[in-house]
UniProtKB/TrEMBL annotation:
AMP binds at residues 375-379, 404. Binds 1 potassium ion per subunit. This is Bifunctional NAD(P)H-hydrate repair enzyme. Catalyzes the epimerization of the S- and R-forms of NAD(P)HX, a damaged form of NAD(P)H that is a result of enzymatic or heat-dependent hydration. This is a prerequisite for the S-specific NAD(P)H-hydrate dehydratase to allow the repair of both epimers of NAD(P)HX.
Amino acid sequence: MRGLWTTARVRSAEERVLAVTPPGALMRRAAFGVASVALELLGGRRRVGLLVGAGNNGGDALWAGHHLRRRGVAVFAVLLAPERAHPEGLAAFRRAGGRVVAELPPVDLVVDGIVGLSARGPLRPDAAEHVARLDAPVLAVDLPSGVDPDTGAVDGPHVRAHTTVTFGCLKPVHALADCGDVRLVDLGLGPELGGPDLVELELDDVGAAWPVPGPEDDKYTQGVTGVAAGSATYPGAAVLSTGAAVLATSGMVRYAGAAADHVRARWPEAVCTGSTTDAGRVQSWVVGPGLGTGLSAEAVLRGVLEAGVPVCADADAITMLANNPDLWDARDPGTPLVLTPHDREYERLLGPVGPDRVAAARRAADRFDAVVLLKGHTTVIAGPDGRTLVNRARSSWAATAGSGDVLSGVLGALLAAGLDPVLAAGCAARAHVLAAELAADGAPVPASVLLAALPDAIRAVRPL
Ligand SMILES: NC(=O)C1=CN([C@@H]2O[C@H](COP(=O)(O)OP(=O)(O)OC[C@H]3O[C@@H](n4cnc5c(N)ncnc54)[C@H](O)[C@@H]3O)[C@@H](O)[C@H]2O)[C@@H](O)CC1
Ligand SMILES: Nc1ncnc2c1ncn2[C@@H]1O[C@H](COP(=O)(O)OP(=O)(O)O)[C@@H](O)[C@H]1O
Ligand SMILES: [K+]
């Protein structure tokens, strides 16, 4: 697991560490880290440019320039706010033979020290002009300037980093936005930080949590997944969602709905019936993909919410809950509910997602007392207890029709297996991203092909 801490938490930890550290020591350690990574990226080339803002982020860049000069690198600095440039950093940079210039000459690497933790909004026009002219790879100090440190939101000109060197701990931006390769320099903040605000699951975490049958297990003991999805108009959603549940875990999957013949034909191992009322017992329900939103779909949703087992409500189920709030009353308050909206479905529930996806997911989790998995390139999972996971895709090939149906089936299977619902959502999202990567391998991947890559994704995360 990788923890991420908001700027407010970082600041308070830094304050306590600064109080017991010689002045300037933390900055010099941070800058030394930047210079080391710069040398690695330079690989023997010898010209570096610095973009230096008004604060300590610029100070880091100037001290890094000082270290690089000592290693014989030619270093040029543009001071975006000359009168407010970090005084000790600037003096050290000049002493070491660094040159202050109005505009960067051709260089092999640019160090972005424009703005760090104090960043607000996109790059200001003068900084944006310098950034627009760059053609060398950028090493960002702490975070790519112009990207919001706490939300990862980008709302105008910003730096695109090849690599980011951050200090003390990871911040939300490092999981929520593209920071290139992220390197962490230890500043000894650990003991002062406390628990993280956000968590990113790593593949090992997913592998360790994935249900594996033991010698005593049979098809029932591992949890039976129920899928209430699909319709005469949308049988494909039922086939995809059921198939994902079949492939995600061992055990049994029951399908109930109008697409039973289609599901049976594709997944002979699924136990299919025409209706949820005669489906038999299950340990979780997936409800919604391709179900429709008419009266019969509402009756299905109501029945599933009353069933007293964990429910993953996706797609049309979310639309029905948004359109007809009485449906919430059917819910058994003691059993977990996971909602998996994309942004437009979220908007039906609570209005626009806005630039802060973490806050949006938390708002919904709190409002509906549910686990909310807000889908997208950056997926955010929030539990009603405040736990929050983030999962950023490496590519966007999963943005294809039906891929959400696959996600719902995986999630339903993990709920049936008894995983904690926040962890189930996190594991499902991570495995889905991995399956998309493996299946796409640089070309479009239809949802049925993404689905077929699930076993490879599970194999890849499982411990050897
Ligand atoms: N506090 C500490 O102990 C340490 C801090 N360090 C560095 O200090 C940084 C934070 O420094 P500061 O708090 O001085 O502030 P920053 O350097 O992040 O920001 C400085 C100034 O940039 C301007 N600015 C804000 N948004 C901007 C935008 N969108 N475009 C252009 N300019 C903008 C503002 O005038 C702001 O005050 C960290 O990111 C890190 O790089 C490191 O030296 C490690 C130790
Ligand atoms: N730009 C993107 N990059 C990566 N993954 C994405 C992107 N957009 C959507 N996804 C993922 O693809 C899936 C789409 O789900 P959804 O919108 O419900 O599609 P559908 O209803 O067609 O199944 C989700 O898992 C989501 O996280
Ligand atoms: K920066």
